[in-house]
Write a structure and sequence with these properties.
Elements lengths: L6 H7 L25 H9 L14 H14 L3 E5 L2 H10 L7 E5 L4 H13 L3 E5 L4 H7 L4 E7 L11 H10 L3 E5 L4 H4 L2 H4 L3 E5 L13 E5 L1 H15 L5 H32 L5 E4 L9 H7 L6 E6 L2 H11 L4 E2 L9 E3 L11 H7 L5 E5 L5 H13 L2
Bound molecules: pyridoxal-5'-phosphate.
Pyridoxal-5'-phosphate binds next to helix 4 and helix 5.
Length: about 400
């Protein structure tokens, strides 16, 4: 579908399905189900569903389908399944393909809920998971086995912004026939090259940059048509993690401005990282800075540095709290990718549940603060961050 269009054009138009009224903006098909002209017609649709036919909104819906087509076109995959949240996408991508006795290798540095799925839930269903340091190829090599079915990683880890060498990990995983599942939230769909580097399934929390305005929860699983329709869809449609049509409409509108927003936010993040990089009160972690440990990978595996930075504030938790409490523009919250800049203290919020040893191992220091850069003027944000640093 219009493969010759550039990404920004596809993000505005691809997937649109106009009704006979010829509406400009995508319609919200806020309906649970669909009517059949005849009993034969119903039987026919249940027997084999056409490209543009629907039965029940848990299985699919025209507005949701528009979003799936649009995001798949941007990511460069054949197909997509939209989900109720990012976690429904992560869980669905894993659970739809795994069974008791399977082995999974996962990077250790994960979003708290992802860690819960991989560490607690999968184990309960008899799936064995080996955790590795995602940046250490020797650990991946040692952990992979002939019975490894899947590999899971966040392409940039949350909150410490470590970057796994996706091409190398995918090559190793494919060597044993494992499916590579990438949670790509921090890279964003705009900067993603995950498919070209070897990801088989790409997962997003659409709650983050795709909505980007803090309105709705959503997620998406992207991959080959075969895998999405034969493995993911049966699991998702029967377990009930479908995206609502109204949310899909929000995400479609988000896609129209996604490129502009993400690029502006990444520019803001870079400006702030540069301005704070020689401030002795804070150590700045940002993939776009030359001193980031995996900076060399950034140019190759992502088309931009992302919109999030981590700040390790001298003086530990007390100083970090004083910093947060002094901010006037940047909000204390736990979303990211939003138009509003948001600051989080992972050790006491998103990663609170981890033991002190585990936090230590993952680099979640008491002074560590995650900053998601929004669309405000970077000069105002810099003044706000300096106000925070002056307060420590
Ligand atoms: C937020 C997030 C999720 C979960 O997404 P929800 O939409 O909140 O369910 C999963 N992975 C990463 C990396 C995230 O940042």
């Amino acid at each position: 579908m219009h493969d010759d269009w550039k990404p920004r054009t596809r993000m505005v138009h691809t997937g649109s399905r106009r009704s006979r009224y010829g509406e400009v903006s995508e319609s919200i098909f806020l309906t649970q189900g669909f009517v059949y002209d005849t009993a034969e017609d119903a039987a026919q649709r249940f027997e084999s569903l056409g490209e543009d036919e629907f039965i029940y909104a848990r299985y699919g819906n025209p507005t949701v389908r528009m979003f799936e087509d649009r995001i798949a076109s941007l990511e460069g995959t054949e197909d997509a399944f939209a989900t109720a949240s990012g976690m429904a996408a992560v869980t669905g991508a894993l659970a739809s393909m795994l069974r008791a006795g399977d082995h999974v290798v996962s990077a250790r540095a994960l979003f708290g809920s992802c860690l819960y799925i991989l560490e607690d839930v999968l184990a309960r269903y008899g799936v064995e998971v080996t955790f590795v340091d995602g940046t250490d190829l020797d650990q991946w090599r040692a952990a992979l086995r002939p019975d490894t079915r899947a590999v899971f990683l966040e392409s940039i880890s949350n909150p410490t912004l470590e970057i796994a060498d996706l091409r190398a990990v995918a090559d190793l995983a494919h060597g044993v026939g494992a499916t590579v599942i990438v949670d790509n939230v921090f890279v964003t769909p705009v900067f993603s090259r995950a498919v070209e580097l070897g990801a088989d399934l790409v997962v997003y929390s659409a709650t983050k940059h795709i909505d980007g305005q803090g309105r709705a929860l959503g997620g998406v699983i992207l991959g080959s048509r075969d895998h999405i329709r034969k493995v993911v869809e049966p699991y998702m449609k029967h377990t009930g993690g479908a995206m609502s049509p109204f949310t899909a409409w929000i995400m479609l509108k988000g896609m129209e401005t996604l490129d502009l927003r993400v690029r502006a936010q990444a520019e803001g993040a870079r400006a702030l990282a540069d301005a704070l990089s020689d401030d002795p009160r804070v150590r700045v972690i940002f993939p776009g800075l030359p001193d980031h440990p995996q900076h060399a990978l950034v140019g190759d595996q992502m088309a931009g540095p992302g919109t999030v930075l981590a700040l390790d504030i001298a003086g530990g938790q007390e100083a970090a709290f004083r910093f947060l409490n002094a901010l006037e523009i940047v909000l204390i919250s736990n979303n990211l990718g939003d138009a509003k800049s948001i600051v989080t203290h992972p050790a006491t919020t998103t990663h609170q549940r981890l033991s002190p040893e585990r936090k230590d191992q993952l680099g979640i220091a008491p002074g560590l603060v995650r900053l998601s850069v929004g669309l405000e003027d970077p000069a105002d944000l810099l003044a706000d961050l300096r106000r925070g640093l002056d307060a420590i």
